[in-house]
Design brief:
- The structure holds 2 protein chains of 2 kinds.
- By secondary structure, chain A is an all-alpha fold.
- Helix content of chain A is 59%, strand content 0%.
- In chain A, helix 1 (2-20) packs antiparallel against helix 2 and helix 2 packs antiparallel against helix 3 (67-98).
- By secondary structure, chain B is mainly α.
- Chain B has a two-stranded antiparallel sheet. Chain B has a two-stranded antiparallel ribbon with strand order 3-4.
């Protein structure tokens, strides 16, 4: 189980980093979302992996998992949503202002062989 | 208390001149004078105790954890310097009132002066070396303001920058040195450090500490090779030069060397570093001073030379030399301040400071001329004046000093420096006040008003009195101060004019003879000097600074040329390198924790995640498809949380997932639906490599972490959740109770993010972008059925249910998974569904809630919950709970944390709705009139126009 989680975190990070390094805003947004997942799961895993022991106090429970990382990650999820939302809206505003969704706010020359894929844009 | 008051008064008073300037220049100067006088008188009340040899202390704790305390102490040395600073300060303030021109802003001048004065007094009275460092830096800053006071002069600005750079860099070195010193002594209090001579000198860190501290002292006191800033600082108004360069700023380095003399001096390192530097500075300064044509330039290099003299004496390390050093500090302060003010008078009266244009002024301004002659003669070291006495003592010490086994080199160089000193001092007298006038000066000179010649006259009286009756006038002071410097019984010495036929007297005689000879053949000597090399310090300094700037620019522009991609690649690449570096340095033993078995269902879900992630990367150019992939990934993460005992996280993740996907969809309405292929293969390979390394690193770290056991502090939360927080859901209790302050911060951040989004979107509805939106042509075909009936009905039916679920999740949150965050998201989803199904205008008309206000109210409720605990004398956000009984409903519990959670809930709803509703609003702007205005309505477009 630990391997599954660790490899998943690694994969999400790698995919996130790759997308963040792209030239258009949309993949960067996707990449940031993936990095948020990876980070949140990683933080959550600092409490170690435990099955069927939610941190809800009850007389029947024998033991509990570590509640602190969960509390931290819960707010982290909400804050990463806020961050993603701000980035998305910034990407949108930048596109509306400049007519380009390049991360630097202006179009780089597009190689001729790829030009047809940009034609659908407004 | 009154000790601290002496330091604080100038700082407090610094605001007075700025205010009083409205009442006129006299009021401004008087208020400054009064503040300084008060501080001076306060200091004088301690004089009897200081002369009895007492050490006064005043201590307050500031940051005791760092050893940083506001400790002041007053002994002979501190008293001496403080009286110089405040006493000469009084004269300078008077003088400046008459010196400054009408157009000079006097209020700011006096404010800067008082700031500087307070910083200087702070240095000399600090007991704590960290506190001393703070004042040390303050003098650098305030002197920068003073030197650059004439902002319109480029020389003033350049001189101020140079002084700040050099003394500031020295200050940094000083900080490091002081920290080492405090580390060795085990305390940052000077009074403790001064007791640890043996430990400090035996420490292997002694030499680094010494070098660093001397770095600070030498830069501040303009010792070779850092002497170059001082002459350039002469671009300041003359009162500033007189104050900074005779009595205060440049003496700070000397003060510190004297202060630390008991623990640092007496070693070979000290002798060779300090005495040699002092001797070289004394010689070079005097030599250059001889050829300066600017009166202030001459005095500046003369100051450099005299500072070198004092440094040399301190460097000798013998008690007798220390007495001489103290005595010369006093003498130099008196005659040099008088001469600076005199140079100001000449400048003021004739309009020039160029010696070549001056001459014969004695007949025109006899008072100033007489004063200058006496002061300069003292500087030359002529008998019956105070400069003679301390110079004799210096020569006497030099005569007995061997350098690397060589007996004659130190006395010879000291005598040579004395020759130059005589020559330039007499040049000041002869070339300015005697001989024939060199020509018409810009203004016709006459003696200045009393305000200008009074202060130097007072100093000249001192020069003569000390010169005639040294033991009576200066004896007690020198004894007290020298006792404080040496820290042990004073050597046997006499302050007297006549010591018999000593070697020093002979050296003095040679100096006067040779010096006068040099002046007589000045033109020849000058020719000799002109033939030699003249390294221009300013050009070298500027070249060094320019080189540093250009290297910094190359690095910065190389790392970041404006491209986000390059910037991120460097940032992430650097993180990867640092991470792997740490990994390489750590141990690589496998973890010992017992692993969880991987259930088949877990493997399936894992495969789903891997597939979705690969699909996302492979298909990210098709943006709508990528949204599906990201939704799948979010779902898997939620499932993982459920599976791994984190129900709260799973609930939060899944609701956030829904909101995120809606948000992205709304944005994608405008953004291009496809990403063009732009990156070259090489670029993609590079990014892939960085990504793979980052992934391996983070994955490896996760693996290393989850396969090891770790101590946790959660036991406390689990134990205290029910008795302390009144809830069984520990995660929620942590959020709203134990770490409520964190959560309070989080909801504020969330609110700010929502307002940012609002600002970004609201701005897009106006101006050029607004027109662009209004003329928007959708790039995809729109569904003919804008408000699908099934969706509309379903969302409306579900709204009360969803709200009920939200309320339920909220209420139960304290005890079972749920709470304000999740409930807020659920309610927001329910509401946003109405926008999606029925359109923005329909939903906005019915939902008359101001989301801004909702955010504000939420934060305020949370804050109020916290503040209520103040009323009960508990810290912010202390929670309380109790059990109540109501008929029908029965026993229930009410916790103040519930109110806090309400604040969280409202903020989350407000923030999410503000973001999403505004995104749909700009979506509404682009819509062309449609057949049916609202959902489930007949097509009325023909009969009444659509509202906007």
């Amino acid at each position: 189980m630990e391997f599954l989680l660790s490899s998943a975190v690694g994969l999400l990070t790698a995919a996130g980093v790759y997308l963040v390094l792209r030239a258009r805003t949309w993949p960067v947004v996707l990449g940031l979302a993936l990095l948020s997942y990876a980070t949140n799961v990683f933080l959550f895993a600092t409490g170690r992996l435990v099955l069927n022991r939610p941190p809800v106090i009850s007389p029947e429970a024998l033991a509990y998992t570590d509640p602190l990382p969960q509390a931290l990650v819960l707010t982290a999820i909400v804050i990463s949503f806020a961050m993603t939302a701000v980035i998305v809206v910034m990407a949108l505003r930048s596109f509306l202002e400049s007519g380009s969704d390049h991360v630097d706010g202006e179009d780089q020359p597009v190689p001729a062989e790829n030009r047809e894929s940009t034609e659908g844009r407004a | 208390m009154s000790l601290a008051l002496i330091v604080i008064l100038p700082f407090l008073g610094a605001i007075l001149p700025a205010l009083m300037i409205r009442a006129g220049r006299n009021a401004c100067a008087t208020s400054t004078f009064t503040v300084t006088l008060l501080a001076f008188l306060l200091l004088m009340t301690h004089a009897p105790a200081v002369f009895r040899g007492e050490v006064l202390q005043a201590r307050w704790e500031w940051i005791p954890q760092l050893g940083l305390n506001v400790n002041f102490f007053l002994d002979g040395l501190g008293f001496f310097f403080a009286s110089l600073i405040l006493g000469i300060g009084l004269l300078i303030i008077t003088y400046a009132r008459f010196y400054l021109a009408k157009e000079d802003p006097m209020g700011s001048f006096y404010s800067y002066l008082l700031l500087f004065q307070g910083a200087m007094v702070g240095i000399v009275l600090s007991d704590n070396i960290l506190l001393l460092l703070i004042f040390w830096e303050l003098t650098s800053l305030s002197s920068f303001l003073l030197i650059g006071y004439w902002k319109h002069l480029p020389e003033g600005r350049q001189g101020a920058r140079m002084a700040l750079t050099v003394t500031g860099a020295g200050g940094l070195s000083m900080i490091a040195g002081m920290l080492i010193l405090g580390h060795i002594a085990g305390s940052y209090d000077l009074s403790v450090i001064l007791q640890h001579k043996e430990a400090i000198q035996a420490s292997p860190l002694y030499l680094p500490a010494l070098l660093l501290i001397l770095g600070g002292c030498f830069t501040k006191s303009a010792q070779f090779p850092f002497h170059f800033w001082l002459p350039h600082a002469m671009a300041a108004p003359t009162p500033v030069s007189a104050y900074l360069h005779s009595a205060t700023m440049v003496k700070a380095g000397l003060f510190l060397m004297a202060r630390l003399w008991p623990v640092l001096a007496g070693t070979d390192e000290w002798f060779y570093l300090v005495a040699t530097t002092g001797l070289i500075t004394m010689l070079i300064g005097a030599w250059i001073a001889l050829f300066k044509d600017d009166l202030k330039g001459l005095l500046a290099f003369s100051t450099v030379s005299h500072l070198g003299l004092i440094t040399f004496l301190l460097g000798l390390g013998s008690p007798m030399a220390a007495v001489a050093a103290v005595f010369h500090i006093l003498n130099h302060a008196t005659f040099k301040a008088a001469l600076f003010m005199n140079a100001g008078i000449v400048d003021h009266e004739t309009g020039t400071r160029d010696i070549r244009k001056l001459g014969g002024l004695m007949t025109l301004m006899p008072i100033a001329g007489t004063l200058a002659t006496i002061a300069a003669a003292s500087m030359a070291g002529l008998p019956l004046l105070n400069g003679f006495l301390s110079k004799e003592m210096m020569l006497e010490e030099a005569a007995h000093t061997a350098w690397l086994g060589n007996d004659w080199i130190v006395p010879a160089l000291a005598t040579l420096a004395a020759c130059f000193s005589v020559a330039y001092s007499f040049r000041y007298i002869v070339h300015v006040y005697f001989g024939k006038p060199a020509g018409e000066t810009p203004r016709h000179p006459h003696d200045p008003p009393f305000g200008l010649w009074g202060p130097p006259a007072l100093l000249v009286v001192l020069v003569v009195l000390i010169g005639l009756f040294p033991a009576t006038v200066a004896g007690p002071l020198v004894a007290t101060v020298a006792g404080a410097v040496i820290g042990s019984p004073l050597p046997d010495y006499h302050l007297a004019i006549w010591h018999g036929l000593t070697p020093a007297l002979g050296m003095s005689a040679i100096a006067v003879a040779v010096g006068l000879g040099l002046l007589a053949g000045y033109l020849k000597v000058r020719k000799l000097w002109s033939a030699g090399p003249h390294p221009e310090a300013k050009a070298m300094f500027q070249a060094v600074i320019a080189a540093a700037v250009s290297v910094a620019q190359k690095i910065t522009h190389g790392l970041h040329n404006g491209s986000l991609q390059r910037h991120l690649a460097f940032a992430i690449g650097a993180a990867v390198v640092v991470g792997f570096g740490a990994f390489a340095a750590a141990s690589h033993a496998p973890g010992q924790r017992e692993l969880l078995p991987a259930a088949p269902v877990a493997i399936v879900v894992w495969l789903l995640l891997v597939g979705a992630t690969i699909a996302l990367v492979a298909l990210h150019r098709q943006r709508l498809v990528s949204l599906i992939a990201i939704g799948v990934i979010g779902m898997v993460v939620s499932l993982a949380f459920v599976y791994l005992s984190a129900p709260d996280l799973a609930l939060t993740q899944i609701s956030v997932e829904v909101v995120t996907v809606i948000l992205m969809l709304l944005a994608l309405n405008f953004l291009p639906k496809e990403t063009p292929v732009e990156s070259s293969g090489g670029r993609r390979l590079r990014d892939g490599l960085i990504a793979a390394l980052a992934g391996i690193g983070v994955g490896g770290a996760a693996w290393a972490m989850t396969t090891r056991d770790a101590a946790t502090l959660s036991g406390y939360y689990l134990e205290q959740s029910v008795p302390g927080g009144g809830g069984t859901n520990v995660v929620n209790v942590i959020l709203v109770d134990f770490r409520g302050f964190d959560t309070f911060g989080e909801i504020i951040v969330l609110g700010i993010a929502a307002l940012t989004i609002y600002a970004l979107l609201d701005g897009a509805t106006r101006g050029a972008v607004g027109r662009k939106l209004a003329a928007w042509v959708p790039d995809q075909a729109r569904s003919a059925d804008r408000h699908p009936l099934m969706l509309v009905v379903a969302t409306r039916v579900m709204l009360p249910l969803a709200l009920m679920v939200g309320a339920f999740i909220f209420l139960r949150g304290h005890n079972v998974p749920g709470g304000g965050f999740i409930a807020g998201l659920v309610v927001a989803i329910a509401l946003i569904m109405q926008y999606m199904a029925s359109g923005y205008s329909w939903a906005a008309q019915r939902m008359k809630v101001d989301y801004h206000a909702l955010i504000g109210i939420g934060v305020l409720i949370a804050a109020a919950t916290g503040i209520v605990s103040w009323l009960a004398d508990y810290p912010f956000l202390t929670s309380a709970f109790d059990h109540f009984h109501l008929p029908i409903i029965g026993e229930f519990e009410l916790a103040s944390a519930m109110a806090f959670d309400t604040g969280v809930f409202l903020t989350v709803v407000g923030a999410v709705m503000l973001a999403l509703a505004n995104l749909s609003r700009i979506g509404g702007l682009t819509e062309t009139p449609v057949p049916n205005e609202g959902p489930m309505e007949p097509d009325l477009s023909a009969t009444h126009p659509r509202e906007h």
